[in-house]
Design goal:
Elements lengths: L1 H12 L5 H19 L1 H8 L1 E2 H5 L5 H4 L7 H17 L6 H22 L5 E2 L3 H17 L3 H20 L3 H7 L5 H18 L10 H7 L1
Antiparallel strand pairs: 1-2
Length: 216
């Protein structure tokens, strides 16, 4: 009963009508959509490709996150962004959203490059989205939100199970390719480091120096 009341209070107090809440997420989904409209040509030039990166096409470390295996794969990640906003409503400046996506995406791709040498190709935003959930949920946990705590525990349990048992075959059949579960792990770890470095967990990210001093 207490959990239901808390959920109702969170929904009622969430700033869902704030334009600042939606600008960053909508820009991300739009960028993913634009890349998907490029079809196979876009994937061939933007996907994480180990051989191409070794030949100097370094941009793939970032752009591979925006490419997808197909429309259903894109839809799942776009839906993930929507759920992120609904569960973790954070009215952030667009540049903070952009920095989060680019830094976590680049760091996660570098981890895949360094620590998953058997991975030749990768596309998708799911690893970054896992990281964005960490940045959104942990501040709520610090404020005593038990629902957010449950979401964090579920996220960690999901990643642990995926690493142990692999992704469900049905998920891979639906998107038309292998789910790179390591991206979920490294996206989460990179987001944790990002949150510590940029003050995301304390709610200071995106604030000016005077505002940070006042908040602290």
């Amino acid at each position: 009963m207490q959990g239901t009341a808390q959920a109702a209070r969170i929904i009622a107090e969430a700033p869902y009508r704030s334009a600042a809440l939606w600008i960053g997420p909508l820009a991300l989904v739009t960028a993913m959509l634009a890349v998907e409209f490029l079809g196979d040509w876009g994937r061939s030039w933007l996907a994480f490709d180990r051989d191409a990166i070794a030949d100097g096409q370094w941009w793939r470390l970032i752009t591979g996150n925006f490419a997808h295996l197909g429309w259903y794969h894109w839809f799942l990640n776009a839906l993930g962004v929507l759920v992120l906003v609904l569960l973790c409503p954070q009215p952030l400046p667009p540049w903070v959203w952009g920095r989060r996506v680019l830094v976590i995406g680049l760091a996660m791709s570098l981890c895949l490059w360094l620590f998953v040498p058997q991975l030749d190709n990768y596309v998708g935003m799911s690893g970054v989205i896992h990281g964005l959930f960490v940045l959104g949920l942990v501040p709520q946990v610090r404020r005593g939100d038990l629902i957010a705590l449950g979401c964090v525990l579920y996220l960690l349990g999901k990643i642990g199970w995926e690493l142990y048992a692999g992704a469900p075959v049905s998920d891979e059949a639906a998107i038309g390719g292998r789910v790179v579960v390591e991206s979920h792990l490294y996206g989460t770890l990179c987001a944790t480091l990002y949150g510590v470095a940029f003050g995301s967990f304390s709610g200071c990210e995106g604030l000016g120096r005077n505002a940070r001093q006042t908040k602290s």
